[in-house]
Amino acid sequence: AYRNVRDLVDRAKRKQQVCDIVTADGSVDTQFDANNQERITTRLHFSELVAALGLLRTGGSLVLKMFTLFEPSSKSIIWLVRAMFDRCIVCKPEMSKPGNSEVYVIGLGFGFIRSAVLNRLMALMEDDDLWSGIEAGDEQQLERAIVPDGWMSADFTEAFTKCSVYFSTQQTDYIERNLRLFENFPFEEKQLINAKKRSYPTEFIAKLDLRRLKEEDRIVPAPAIPLDKGGNINSTRSFPTGGRGNKSGTQSSRAEFRRLYDQTQSRRADLAREKPHAGFVPTDGIATPRRGNEAEGPGEKVAAPAIGSNLSKALLEKSGLTGEGLEHG
């Protein structure tokens, strides 16, 4: 899949369709190992950066979503952004949940990248051994990182460390606050939070100088916009969230589900080996379904399956199967 990046860049260059801005906010499922989210997603983030470097025109901009900034690979990604762009900014959007580790790396004023350097970065992106080692925490692969540490100045390392500490401290403080409020949520603090939430729309409208469109300036006719929800066209917000259950569960519940699932599958394989029955035969630890009315051995009989209804029986007989045992006629 990562080789698609090379093809994407080649096609864009052949058609001279370079970009003014590239946004990259992808992620992968890390719910079963949330503590290693940074390592698991680092290859994706690096690939997004490589794609952007191959697609952007001179002066273009990059928006790259990342998470915690603790690993050498993350340091390398930030260093590359700083080296390829006039400015590199790491920020957390105002509306991003303070308790998660999401941050955005902004690159402003893209310079240029030599073909040899881009090809080298693509080769690193396609190095499965490197990324498998980084994800697994292999010390040798972690030391390889992407960019040698010796290339990075002391000033950059200091700035990166301060950035990492700042965002991790903000996240830790907010998680501790949530735990405190979970036990005791004062009414006054609730009022302050609600007042702050109500102020955001007003500030947003004032800052961007938003105004109501005249009827003749609208692109979409008014009747095409559903107004039964007070003009709210966001389907996920059209219903109250209070009664909507948490379908994904918590991290601990998902991990427990995965453990129980693996345990159940292992037990099923053990039972298939210990006590094979008419429906399944163990084959190297795998349960394999039997065909038709095949018995365990010579002379053994298997009870014929029952027809569930007259309609089922008629349909089966129409297919050339007759009788209660579903034998071919």
Tell me about this structure.
Residues 223-303 are annotated as: Disordered. GO terms for molecular function: methyltransferase cap1 activity; methyltransferase cap2 activity. Residues 1-112 form the Adrift-type SAM-dependent 2'-O-MTase domain. Its EC number is 2.1.1.296. Residues 255-277 have a biased composition (Basic and acidic residues). A four-stranded mixed beta sheet has the order 1-2-4-3, covered by helices on one side. Helix 2 runs antiparallel to helix 5 (128-136). With 329 residues, the chain is α+β, with helices and mostly antiparallel strands. The model is unreliable at 236-244, 278-309 and 325-329 (pLDDT under 50). It contains ten helices and eight strands. It has a domain at 1-219: Rossmann fold.
